[in-house]
C-alpha cells in the first residue's frame, strides 16, 4: 500500500527570462518500510519533487496524495508538522536551540512537551548513535556528521511515516556518510519509515530498495544505480 | 571604441538595475543641484546686500544740552580734545570706509532771509530810530524806525516802544539814534560787544545822529554779523551725498535734478543741491546759479568772531531736495577731499562714518573706549543686518545641506560603482585574462558608469529646475518672516529704509558644477573599483549567522509554551541581543539628548524673555513742534498708566536756576523785580543763562543717566531715591513756600529738595544737607515765564556719566492720571499741568487752552520706562500705536517720538527663534533618519534569520507562532534597550520629557513594524529557497 503517490505531477517556475518545466508529468508511488533513492543530474527536478512531497510547495498540475489525500486539499503546515519529516544536506538545525531542544521542537509543535519530550529526545539521540552528553550542546559545537544525526533524530521525533532526505550525505565525509546511510536504512527497514532520499551518492543508490532516475523533469522508472535493473 | 560600445551595451542589457541606479543617481543629482543652487543663491544674495546697503554710524556727544543742536557745548569741545587720539584712531580704523565730520560751514546769501523756528537769535535787531516821546511811568520811548540795519522783519516806518538801558543817560527826544537790542514786548536797547575777525568791538547802547562813519560802521558790522548768524544756512560738504544721514535715512530725497557726479566730487565743482525752501524763497530753478559766501565757524557757530570766510561765488543748482522740518535751509556741496578733521560744532553730532556693512561689531569694539567718555554711536544700516542675519544663518544651513548632499552623492556614486563593478568583476577579469589591457577594461567600466551618470545629471538638473522655484519661494517666505516683524518704535530697526528682495535666478554654473561633481565622482569611484577588481584577492571565509550562536554548551531549557523559541533566542542571541539592546539604548539617549536640547533652547528663550529688560524713552520735545502728533489725546499719560510698563520716569525741564548762596549767605545779584516789568524780564533773561533746573521722578532713570552707563548718586543720610520720588507733598510745600516768599521778599524754610552735580557743589561750597536759596525761571503757558525764589535742601549729589550742570528736583508723576491740584495747588488747575510734563494734555485740557488762546508749552520733557514683561513687546507696540504715538521719525536727533530700546532683545530673540527653527528641522530630519535606520536594521536583522524562519516553517510551525516568537523577541529586546536608554539618559542628567517618550515609542513601533513586514515577507512560499542555499 503506497503511503505517498505522485500522480502526473508537473511543476513550472518562472524566472525573468523563461519558464522552466521542472517536473513534467511525474508518476510514482512510495511505500512504508522502504528506502527510495531519487537520482539524476543537476537540474533534472529531483529536489523539486522532494520539496513537493515535503509539502513546501504545491504542484502546478497533478496531485501528490498522502495516504490517499491530495496535499492541495490538506493544511500544508500540518502536513509538514505531522506527516513529512525532512533532512537537509546542510542539516538546518536551529542554531539557538540546544541539541535536545532541536529534537523536542517538533514534538512541542504537536503538544508533546516537558520532561517526557526531553526523555524522548534523549532516547532518539542515543538511537542515532550520539551520546547523551551532546544534548545540552548547541549545533555549532558538533561535527557535520553529528549535526546530521541530530537532524535525523529531529526527523524521527516528528513521529511521521514519511522521511525525506535531500542529499543527506552531501556535506559529510565517507565515515559519517556511511553511518547516515545505515541509519536511514535502519529507519526504513526496522522502523517501517518510508524514506525517500535525493542523492548523488552511489552508495545510497546502491543500497536503496528502489532507485528513481530523473531526467529533464521526468521519471524514468525504478532502476538500480548500476544499470537499469528494477528491484521493486 | 570597442570598450565604450561594450560598456554602453552592458548598461542597456541590465535594464532593471540600470533604471534603479538611474533613479538613485537622478535623485542624488537633483538634491545636489538644488543644494548647489540654494547655496549659490544665498551667497549671491549676501553679495548683493554688500552693494545694495550702505551702513553709516553717527557719532554723538551726549552733553548737558542734548538734544539741542543749536547750542555750542564747551563740554563737547573738551571731550573732543581729550579724546582726539582715540577719535583719530577710530576714523582710520579698518572697518571705516569714510569719515565725514559734521558741517562747520555756513552759507550766506544776501537773498536768503530765514523765517524758520531754528533761527538762533530771532529777536535781535539793529535799527535807526527817531524818538518822538517819553512816558515816565513806564519808562518807554515811542519811536519810528527810519532804517532797519538788521531785523528778522522789516520794521522801517513802523512805530515801536523803546526801553532805554537802566541808569543810562536819558535819551534826547525828539532825536534820531542808531540802536541795537532785542524785541521783547518792546524794543530793549542793550549794549553790545562782539568779536569780529579777532577784534573785540564794544558798541555804545545807542549812537546819536551825527556820529562818525567809523562809529556807525560798528553798528553796520554788528548788523552784518547778526545777518550771518541768523540767515546763514547749513552747508553739508560731502564726498558721497547719498550716504549723508538725511539721505541715507530718507529724511530728504531728491525731488528735482540729480546728485553729484564723480567728476564734480573730484573737481569740487561749483555746483550745489539745495532744499526746496531755499529754491522757492529765491525763485530759483534747476540750472540757475545761486550767489553765496561760505564761512567756516571754528567753535561756536554763533560767535561771529569764529567765522572765517573761505569762499565766495556762484554755485549752479543741479538738484533740489524735498522739504524737511529738520533741514529747511540746507545746501550740499561736492568735495571728494572733504575735511577729515575732528572738531566740535554746535549741537552734539561730531560726524558720521561710512562703514563696511559686515564690520559693525568690529567697529563698535574699536569705538568702545570712546563710548565711556560721553560719546554715543548710532549705527544705521538701512536694514542690512535685518536682511543678512537670517540669510547668513541660511547660508550655513544650506552649506551643511550641500555638504550632506555631496556626501550622499559620494556614497551613491561609490555604491553604484562598487555594485556595478562587483557584478561585472568576472567580465572584467575575463577581458583582462583574454589580453585586454587595464585601460581597456577601465574604459569599459567607465563607459557603462557614465551611461548612467550623464542622463542622471541631466534629469537631476531638470528636476532641480522644476522644483527650485518652489524652494526659493519657501526661502523667500522664511527670509521675509523677520523683515515683516512689527518693529514700530524699535530703537534701531526703525532705520530699515531699504529692502532687497531675495529673488534668485538660477545660473548655468550651478548646474554645471553639480554635473561636474557627479561625473567626476563617477570617474573616480569607477576607476578605483575597476582597478581594485583586477587585483588578485585572497578568498576569505564568509561570516555566517552562526557567529551569533553561543560558544558554550547551554542548559536544556525547561521553558515551554508558544513563545519558548522567542525567549530562548532573546536570551541566547549574545552579540545580536547586545547589539539590539545597545541600539535601543543609543536611540533613547539620542532622542533624550535632542529633545532636551530643543527644550533647552526653548527654555533659554523663555528665560531670556522673562529676564530681559526692555527700556524705552518718549519725548515731547519735537512732538510739540510737529503738528498732529499731540492732538490724539494724552499719549504719554496713557503710556504711563499702561499695565505693560513699570519704572515710569518723567523728566521735564522746569527752567533755569541760579544759586544765591547757602541759607544766610545769599548774594543777591539783583532786587526781586515785580512781575511783568522790564526788570522782571531782565532777571528772566539773566536766569536763562544759568544751569538747567530739571524735574524728574527718578534721577537714575533720567535721560542723563539712561542714555549712558556709569555715574553715581550719593544721598544724604536717611535719604534714598525712593524718598526723592515720594516727595510730592513735601515738594509742593516747598514750592508753595517759595511762591509765598515772592510776595514777602524773603525765603521761608521748606522741605523742597534738590540733587546737584558734585562739581557744582564743590565749586559753590555746598554740602549735603545744606539749604540753598535760589532764583528760578521757567516758562509758563499762562504768563510766558515765571521768576521765583526757591529754597531747596540738597539731599543728593551726583556724578553723571557725562559732564552735567543739571539741578534735579522731584516732580511727581501720578500714574493713575493727572491730579494736578495735589501737586501744585498754588496755581489753578490749568496751570498745574506745566509742572507735570508738557505732554499731559487731554483733548479737554487742550480745548481749554485753545479757548483761552494759549498754546501748550514747547518745553521739553522726557520719559523713560521699562517693559514689565518683555514677551509682551508687541502688545506695547499696539498700545502705543493706539495711544497716538508715532514711529515716524519726526524731529531732530531724538528721532522717534517714542522709542523702545529693544534691538538687543529682538536680535537675540529672533536669532534664538531661528535657531529653534533650524534645530527643529535638523532634529526632525535626524529623527526621520533614526527611524529609517531603525527600520532598515530591524529588516536586516530579521532578513539575516530567514533561514531559521524557513526551517521553522519546514518543520510545520504555524505562521502565528513564528511571528509571535520573533516579534516578542524584538519587542522585548528593543523595549528593554530603549528603557535602559531612557534611564541612562535620566541618570546622565537628561530630563525625561514627553517628546522623548513619544519618539521612543515611535522608534519601538517602527522597529516592530519593520520586523513584522520582514517576517511577513519571510513567510512567503519563496522563502523555502533559503533551505537549499549554501552556507
Give a nutshell description of this structure:
The complex is a heterodimer of chains A (232) and B (1031). Chain A is α/β, with parallel strands linked by helices and 232 residues long.
Which terms would index this structure?
heterodimer, A: 232 residues, alpha/beta, Rossmann fold, 2 domains, six-stranded mixed β-sheet, four-stranded antiparallel β-sheet, disordered C terminus, B: 1031 residues, alpha+beta, Alpha-Beta Plaits, OB fold (Dihydrolipoamide Acetyltransferase, E2P), 5 domains, ten-stranded mixed β-sheet, 45% helix, elongated
Q: What best-fitting shape of chain A do the alpha-carbon axes yield?
A: globular
CATH architecture of the largest domain in chain A: 3-Layer(aba) Sandwich
Largest interface (CB within 8 Å) is between: A-B, 42 and 39 residues
Task: Note the quaternary state here.
Answer: heterodimer
Strand order of the largest sheet of chain A: 6-7-8-3-9-10
Instruction: Work out the strand percent of chain A.
Output: 25-35%
The biggest beta sheet of chain A reads: 6 strands, mixed
Describe this structure in words.
The complex is a heterodimer of chains A (232) and B (1031). Chain A is of the alpha/beta class. Chain A folds into two domains: 1-83 and 162-169 and 178-232, 3-Layer(aba) Sandwich (Rossmann fold), CATH 3.40.50.300; 92-159. Helices cover 32% and strands 28% of the residues of chain A. In chain A, the strands form two sheets. A six-stranded mixed β-sheet of chain A has the order 6-7-8-3-9-10, sandwiched between helices. Chain A is globular and about 50 Å long. Mean pLDDT of chain A is 86; it is low at 225-232. Chain B is of the alpha+beta class. Classes of the chains: A alpha/beta (232), B alpha+beta (1031).
Secondary structure: elements and pairs:
The complex is a heterodimer of chains A (232) and B (1031).
Chain A: E1 2-14, E2 19-31, E3 35-40, H1 46-53, E4 61-66, E5 69-70, H2 76-82, E6 84-87, H3 99-109, H4 115-127, H5 144-157, E7 162-166, H6 174-189, E8 194-198, H7 202-207, E9 210-215, E10 218-222
Parallel strand pairs in A: 3-8, 3-9, 6-7, 7-8
Antiparallel strand pairs in A: 1-2, 1-4, 4-5, 9-10
Helix pairs in contact in A: 3-4, 3-5, 4-5, 5-6
Chain B: H1 2-12, H2 15-52, E1 55-61, H3 74-82, H4 84-91, E2 96-101, E3 105-108, E4 124-135, E5 140-150, E6 159-163, E7 175-183, E8 187-189, E9 192-196, E10 199-203, E11 206-208, H5 213-231, E12 233-238, H6 245-248, E13 254-257, H7 262-267, E14 271-275, H8 276-282, E15 289-297, E16 307-321, E17 330-334, E18 349-355, H9 360-371, E19 375-380, H10 384-423, H11 425-433, H12 438-483, H13 508-533, H14 564-572, H15 575-611, E20 615-619, H16 635-640, E21 645-662, H17 678-687, E22 692-696, H18 703-706, E23 712-715, H19 721-725, H20 728-744, E24 753-757, H21 758-764, E25 771-780, E26 784-799, E27 807-810, H22 820-823, H23 829-832, H24 843-851, E28 861-867, H25 873-882, E29 898-901, H26 903-943, H27 946-954, H28 959-987, H29 994-1018, H30 1025-1028
Parallel strand pairs in B: 6-8, 12-17, 14-16, 22-27, 24-26
Antiparallel strand pairs in B: 1-18, 1-19, 2-18, 3-12, 3-15, 4-5, 4-7, 5-6, 7-8, 7-11, 9-10, 13-16, 14-17, 15-16, 20-28, 20-29, 21-22, 21-25, 21-28, 23-26, 25-26
Helix pairs in contact in B: 1-12, 2-10, 2-12, 2-13, 10-11, 10-12, 10-13, 11-12, 12-13, 14-28, 15-26, 15-28, 15-29, 26-29, 28-29
Amino acid at each position: 500500500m503506497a503511503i505517498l503517490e505522485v500522480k502526473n505531477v508537473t511543476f513550472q517556475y518562472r524566472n525573468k527570462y523563461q519558464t522552466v518545466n521542472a517536473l513534467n508529468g511525474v508518476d510514482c508511488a512510495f511505500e512504508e518500510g522502504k528506502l527510495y533513492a531519487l537520482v539524476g543530474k543537476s537540474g533534472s527536478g529531483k529536489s523539486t519533487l522532494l520539496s513537493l512531497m515535503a509539502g513546501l510547495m504545491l504542484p502546478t498540475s497533478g496531485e501528490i496524495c498522502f495516504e490517499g489525500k491530495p496535499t492541495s486539499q490538506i493544511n500544508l503546515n500540518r502536513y509538514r508538522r505531522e506527516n513529512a519529516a525532512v533532512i537537509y544536506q546542510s542539516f538546518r538545525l536551529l542554531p539557538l536551540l540546544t541539541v535536545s531542544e532541536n529534537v523536542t521542537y517538533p514534538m512541542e509543535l504537536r503538544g508533546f512537551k516537558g520532561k517526557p519530550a526531553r526523555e524522548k529526545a534523549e532516547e532518539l539521540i542515543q538511537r542515532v548513535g550520539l551520546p547523551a552528553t551532546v544534548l545540552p550542546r548547541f549545533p555549532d559545537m558538533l561535527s557535520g556528521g553529528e549535526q546530521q544525526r541530530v537532524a535525523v533524530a529531529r526527523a524521527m521525533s516528528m513521529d511521521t511515516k514519511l522521511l525525506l532526505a535531500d542529499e543527506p550525505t552531501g556535506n559529510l565525509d565517507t565515515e559519517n556518510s556511511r553511518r547516515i546511510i545505515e541509519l536511514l536504512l535502519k529507519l526504513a527497514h526496522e522502523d517501517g519509515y518510508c524514506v525517500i532520499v535525493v542523492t548523488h551518492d552511489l552508495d545510497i543508490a546502491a543500497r536503496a530498495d528502489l532507485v528513481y532516475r530523473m531526467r529533464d523533469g521526468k521519471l524514468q522508472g525504478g532502476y538500480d544505480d548500476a544499470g537499469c535493473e528494477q528491484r521493486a | 571604441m570597442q570598450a565604450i560600445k561594450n560598456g554602453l551595451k552592458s548598461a542597456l542589457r541590465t535594464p532593471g538595475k540600470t533604471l534603479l541606479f538611474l533613479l538613485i543617481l537622478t535623485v542624488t543629482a537633483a538634491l545636489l543641484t538644488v543644494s548647489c543652487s540654494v547655496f549659490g543663491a544665498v551667497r549671491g544674495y549676501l553679495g548683493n546686500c554688500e552693494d545694495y546697503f550702505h551702513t553709516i554710524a553717527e557719532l554723538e556727544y551726549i552733553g548737558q544740552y542734548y538734544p539741542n543742536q543749536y547750542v555750542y557745548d564747551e563740554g563737547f569741545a573738551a571731550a573732543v580734545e581729550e579724546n582726539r587720539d582715540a577719535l583719530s584712531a577710530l576714523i582710520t580704523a579698518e572697518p571705516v570706509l569714510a569719515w565725514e565730520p559734521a558741517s562747520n560751514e555756513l552759507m550766506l546769501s544776501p537773498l536768503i532771509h530765514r523765517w524758520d523756528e531754528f533761527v538762533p537769535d530771532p529777536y535781535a535787531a539793529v535799527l535807526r530810530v527817531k524818538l518822538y516821546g517819553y512816558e515816565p511811568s513806564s519808562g518807554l520811548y515811542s519811536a519810528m524806525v527810519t532804517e532797519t540795519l538788521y531785523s528778522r522783519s522789516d520794521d522801517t516806518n513802523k512805530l515801536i516802544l523803546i526801553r532805554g538801558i537802566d541808569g543810562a543817560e536819558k535819551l534826547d527826544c525828539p532825536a534820531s539814534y542808531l540802536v541795537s537790542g532785542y524785541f521783547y514786548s518792546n524794543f530793549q536797547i542793550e549794549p553790545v560787544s562782539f568779536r569780529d575777525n579777532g577784534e573785540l568791538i564794544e558798541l555804545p547802547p545807542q549812537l546819536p545822529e551825527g556820529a562818525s562813519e567809523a562809529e556807525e560802521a560798528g553798528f553796520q558790522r554788528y548788523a552784518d554779523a547778526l545777518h550771518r548768524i541768523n540767515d546763514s544756512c547749513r552747508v553739508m560738504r560731502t564726498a558721497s551725498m547719498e550716504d549723508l544721514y538725511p539721505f541715507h535715512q530718507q529724511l530728504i530725497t531728491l525731488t528735482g535734478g540729480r546728485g553729484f557726479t564723480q567728476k564734480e566730487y573730484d573737481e569740487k565743482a561749483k555746483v550745489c543741491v539745495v532744499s526746496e525752501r531755499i529754491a522757492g524763497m529765491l525763485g530759483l530753478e534747476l540750472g540757475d546759479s545761486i550767489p553765496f559766501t561760505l564761512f567756516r565757524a571754528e567753535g561756536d557757530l554763533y560767535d561771529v568772531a569764529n567765522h572765517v570766510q573761505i569762499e565766495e561765488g556762484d554755485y549752479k543748482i543741479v538738484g533740489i531736495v524735498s522739504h524737511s522740518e529738520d533741514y529747511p535751509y540746507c545746501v550740499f556741496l561736492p568735495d571728494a577731499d572733504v575735511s577729515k578733521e575732528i572738531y566740535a560744532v554746535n549741537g552734539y553730532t561730531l560726524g558720521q562714518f561710512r562703514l563696511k556693512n559686515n564690520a559693525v561689531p568690529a567697529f563698535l569694539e574699536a569705538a568702545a573706549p570712546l563710548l565711556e567718555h560721553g560719546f554715543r554711536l548710532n549705527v544705521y544700516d538701512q536694514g542690512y543686518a535685518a536682511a543678512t542675519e537670517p540669510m547668513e544663518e541660511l547660508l550655513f544651513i544650506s552649506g551643511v545641506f550641500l555638504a550632506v548632499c555631496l556626501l550622499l552623492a559620494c556614497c551613491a556614486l561609490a555604491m553604484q560603482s562598487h555594485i556595478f563593478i562587483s557584478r561585472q568583476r568576472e567580465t572584467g577579469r575575463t577581458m583582462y585574462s583574454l589580453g585586454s589591457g587595464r585601460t581597456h577594461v577601465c574604459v569599459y567600466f567607465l563607459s557603462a558608469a557614465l551611461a548612467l551618470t550623464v542622463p542622471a545629471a541631466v534629469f537631476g538638473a531638470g528636476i532641480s529646475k522644476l522644483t527650485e522655484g518652489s524652494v526659493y519661494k519657501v526661502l523667500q517666505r522664511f527670509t521675509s518672516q523677520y523683515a515683516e516683524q512689527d518693529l514700530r518704535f524699535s530703537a534701531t530697526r526703525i532705520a530699515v529704509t531699504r529692502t532687497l528682495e531675495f529673488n534668485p535666478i538660477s545660473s548655468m554654473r550651478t548646474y554645471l558644477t553639480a554635473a561636474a561633481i557627479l561625473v567626476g565622482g563617477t570617474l573616480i569611484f569607477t576607476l578605483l573599483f575597476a582597478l581594485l577588481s583586477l587585483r588578485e584577492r585572497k578568498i576569505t571565509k564568509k561570516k555566517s549567522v552562526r557567529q551569533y550562536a553561543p560558544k558554550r554548551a547551554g542548559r536544556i531549557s525547561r521553558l515551554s509554551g508558544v513563545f519558548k523559541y522567542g525567549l530562548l533566542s532573546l536570551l541566547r542571541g549574545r552579540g545580536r541581543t547586545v547589539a539590539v539592546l545597545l541600539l535601543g539604548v543609543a536611540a533613547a539617549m539620542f532622542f533624550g539628548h535632542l529633545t532636551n536640547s530643543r527644550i533647552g533652547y526653548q527654555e533659554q528663550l523663555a528665560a531670556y524673555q522673562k529676564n530681559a529688560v526692555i527700556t524705552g524713552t518718549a519725548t515731547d520735545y519735537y512732538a510739540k513742534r510737529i503738528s498732529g502728533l499731540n492732538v490724539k489725546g494724552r499719549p504719554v499719560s496713557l503710556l504711563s498708566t499702561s499695565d505693560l510698563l513699570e519704572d515710569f520716569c518723567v523728566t521735564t525741564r522746569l527752567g533755569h536756576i541760579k544759586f544765591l548762596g547757602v541759607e544766610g549767605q545769599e548774594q543777591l545779584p539783583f532786587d526781586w523785580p515785580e512781575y511783568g516789568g522790564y526788570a522782571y524780564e531782565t532777571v528772566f533773561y539773566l536766569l536763562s543763562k544759568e544751569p538747567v533746573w530739571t524735574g524728574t521722578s527718578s534721577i537714575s532713570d533720567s535721560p542723563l543717566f539712561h542714555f549712558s552707563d556709569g555715574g553715581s548718586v550719593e544721598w544724604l543720610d536717611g535719604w534714598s531715591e525712593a524718598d526723592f520720588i515720594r516727595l510730592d507733598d513735601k515738594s509742593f510745600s516747598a514750592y508753595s513756600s517759595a511762591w509765598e516768599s515772592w510776595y514777602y521778599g524773603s525765603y521761608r524754610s521748606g522741605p523742597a529738595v534738590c540733587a546737584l552735580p558734585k562739581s557744582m557743589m564743590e565749586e559753590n561750597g555746598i554740602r549735603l544737607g545744606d539749604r540753598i536759596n535760589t532764583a528760578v525761571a521757567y516758562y509758563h503757558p499762562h504768563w510766558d515765564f515765571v521768576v521765583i525764589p526757591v529754597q531747596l535742601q540738597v539731599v543728593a549729589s551726583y556724578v553723571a556719566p557725562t559732564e552735567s550742570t543739571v539741578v534735579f528736583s522731584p516732580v511727581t508723576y501720578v500714574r493713575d492720571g493727572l491730579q494736578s491740584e495735589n501737586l501744585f495747588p498754588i496755581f489753578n488747575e490749568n496751570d498745574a499741568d506745566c509742572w507735570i510734563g508738557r505732554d499731559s494734555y487731554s483733548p479737554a485740557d487742550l480745548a481749554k487752552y485753545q479757548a483761552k488762546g494759549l498754546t501748550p508749552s514747547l518745553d521739553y520733557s522726557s520719559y523713560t520706562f521699562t517693559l514689565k514683561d518683555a514677551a509682551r513687546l508687541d502688545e506695547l507696540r499696539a498700545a502705543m500705536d493706539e495711544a497716538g504715538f508715532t514711529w515716524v521719525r519726526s524731529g531732530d536727533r531724538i528721532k522717534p517720538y517714542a522709542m523702545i530700546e529693544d534691538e538687543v532683545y529682538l536680535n537675540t530673540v529672533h536669532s534664538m527663534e531661528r535657531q529653534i527653527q533650524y534645530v527643529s528641522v535638523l532634529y526632525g530630519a535626524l529623527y526621520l533618519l533614526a527611524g529609517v535606520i531603525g527600520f532598515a536594521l530591524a529588516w536586516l536583522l530579521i532578513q539575516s534569520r530567514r533561514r531559521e524562519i524557513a526551517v521553522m516553517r519546514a518543520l510545520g510551525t504555524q505562521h502565528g507562532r513564528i511571528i509571535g516568537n520573533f516579534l516578542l523577541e524584538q519587542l522585548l529586546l528593543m523595549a528593554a534597550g530603549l528603557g535602559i536608554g531612557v534611564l541612562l539618559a535620566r541618570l546622565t542628567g537628561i530630563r525625561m520629557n514627553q517628546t522623548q517618550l513619544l519618539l521612543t515609542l515611535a522608534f519601538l513601533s517602527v522597529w516592530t513594524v519593520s520586523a513584522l513586514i520582514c517576517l511577513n515577507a519571510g513567510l512567503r512560499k519563496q522563502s523555502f529557497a533559503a533551505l537549499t542555499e549554501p552556507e
